[in-house]
Amino acid sequence: MAKDGAAKLSKNLLRMKFMQRGLDAELKKQLDEEEKRIISDEHWFLDLPELKAKENHIIEERSCVPCEDLVYGRMSFRGFNPEVEKLMLLMNTHKEEEEDEEEDDVSRMETDITDEEMARRYESLVESMRKKFAKKRNRSTVTKSEEDVNCNVVGDQPKKVFLKPQD
Amino acid sequence: MDTIHACFKEKIGEVLLPGDVFSFRLSESGDGSIKTEKIICGPGLRRNGEEVQVCKSGILRHKQPNMYWIDSQQRRYVPAKGESVIGIVTAKSGDIFKVDVGGSEQASLSYLAFEGATKRNRPNVQVGDLVYGQFTIANKDMEPELVCIDSCGRANGMGVFGADGLLFKVSLGLVRRLLAPQSEIIKDLEKIFPFELVVGMNGRVWVKAKTVQQTLIVTNLLETCENMTSQQRQTLFKRVAEGSL
To answer: Name one GO biological process term (chain A) (predicted).
Structure first.
């Protein structure tokens, strides 16, 4: 087996990854395509004409709970079981909310801080972080631009670079 | 749109018998509006191709915008998905409990379907316990499955309940009347004395009050409510309220 020439190696063996490392890209592509063809030929398919699913306008509903808007099944009266009374309120208002929510927009969430305060806090936060990470030489420019309300950046003095001696 | 609803409208509030058919031709050309109208057939109505057939005798009811159903009387419960029922645990086998819900088959309840249950932390459920749960699977081809947990993982009052109290069976029509949004029976009962009530859609009702006698009074009142008009009921309740207080 080991003594046979390359011609005697089987097809499957030649298709293995380690045998293909020496091949060209083209040969590899050809081999891949052949493999795909073989696999897709083996796939089964139905030789039927295309059937379209009919859209049904009639929906069947087996339960009578949505029909009659039945309430939650556990009930307690006059404080006999306070937990169940809490549950009653929860489940029955939950059902009412579902009906109302369809009309309202859920646009604003309730917040502890107003939006303006948040924007102000964020502004100062950005400045302080910028100052912290600015290089020592740039810190003065940062503070200057901060004080100016319109943030007009006045042209800086030319940056001090190392001057090579002309000697 | 008008043709569909018109077929139904003439019969709303009338008694229909099984075999009555509502058919409407939807093959009209170019009517985009008719195509998008959906009708929801509730219990008692069944779709048969393009027609709607009545399969239970009763009165046709309507709810806006497009829901129709037959209001009928029966005592035998057929499990339906999404309904909350009271079940009695009959057996524990492996990972599931077998629960009797009054249907043709016993429902299965997985032990993981309780709030806070894990493989190590098993729920404390014994044979003979009462459970309040919802159906996740309930059709004529498969065994019904119950869960005591909602889709978010919270119990919402479901699970084992009721150390004391009394369980009894009523007709399904009375259950629907008790659970209606502004139920008069409940409003009248409230006035008598404090008590706790669990109503399952399978016709089972569990009552608990402070003393055994009060529990029995409530039970008897509920059982007789079925066959009384509201006048008779109110007079009866008044007599009881005066008698007991």
So the answer is: maturation of 5.8S rRNA
